[in-house]
Amino acid sequence: MGAPTANRGPAAERAAPLVWAALAVGAALLAAVLTEAAGITLAASTARGLTDTAAVACVGLGLVTVLVPTSARDARGTTVIQRGDRATVVVAGGWLAAVLVSIAVRAAEAVGRPLGALTPADVGAFVTRVAAGRGIVLTALCAAAVLGCAVARVRNPDAVPGRVVLVGALLGALTPGVTGHTGSTPEHSLAVVTVAFHVGAAALWVGGLAVLLVLIAPHRALLERGLPRFSRIATVCLAGTALTGVANALLRLPDLGDLVSSGYGALILAKTGLIGVLALLGGLARRRLQRGTLPVLRWAGVEVTVMAVTIGVAAALSQTAP
């Protein structure tokens, strides 16, 4: 059977993820500037936007083996999985590089020195004595593990189960959120749990749709099998993202009035509005995917574009104190 659309070529498939990544980083920078996030430099916002985007992409790529079930692993299904593994090598490598840059940028901020004057002792102190530094190191280890597993799968798809890549990517995506400002809240344990569920649900939702759109949607037979699985995942993730987002905001905001009087509150409102738009677009895109109508990829692409902007806003929010 043919693809749901006939006008998207390989060049468009390669360009779309780059555009989404640029939007996520741009949104993080713009949000940081507009809200005048205290103590957060543009370099840190850029690094956080890149690392979050790469982590979400790796989570989505880890879902490929879930969305392409064993029963669909004919020549076409095997090719899609192999493409996903090769893409994971590239994205995980970029993720690891961005995390290492982020360590240097955040260490320089912590000691109040420019990057050029940073010493190994400064970096060592940051990653061993500061919670955020230890969290970034854990993220780097997760990114390295995902990269290693992806390389092994490229050489031999049976060497490492695809779900191992998914778990490693999820852990790496969760770590920055639960080791950042969350640790300073009075309800520390509850805040960590809500942030972990929030980030994990969002990463599965965003990454899953992007992978469905780029790798699976061009193959109608695979789409018909993978779409019902993703729809169930997306429904749970949407509800989880919304509920945990509200819970975490209530835990961190000293007063509900801060929603309209602080930069942190403005970012929460912006993110909430974007999630509402995503809920509407998601239902429309999945109905069109199911029917196989021609504008399907365009509508799903709009949804992922809004998701990319949401990632950027979330990256800025994660670094802003209430």
Short description:
The chain is mainly α.
Model description:
The chain is an all-alpha fold and 322 residues long. The protein has 12 helices and no strands. The protein is globular and about 55 Å long. The termini are far apart.
Produce the secondary structure layout.
Elements: H1 10-34, H2 42-62, H3 64-67, H4 75-111, H5 120-129, H6 131-155, H7 162-179, H8 188-216, H9 220-252, H10 258-261, H11 263-291, H12 296-318
Helix pairs in contact: 1-2, 1-12, 2-4, 2-7, 2-8, 2-12, 4-5, 4-6, 5-6, 6-7, 7-8, 8-9, 8-12, 9-11, 11-12
Task: Tag the structure with descriptive keywords.
322 residues; mainly alpha; globular
DSSP strand tally:
0
- What is the N-to-C succession of helices and strands? HHHHHHHHHHHH
Mean pLDDT value: 77
Work out the radius of gyration. Answer: 19 Å
The shape, in one word, is: globular
Helix/strand/pairing category:
mainly alpha
The largest sheet is: none
The N- and C-terminal alpha carbons lie at a distance of 52 Å
Query: Percent of residues in helical segments?
Result: over 70%
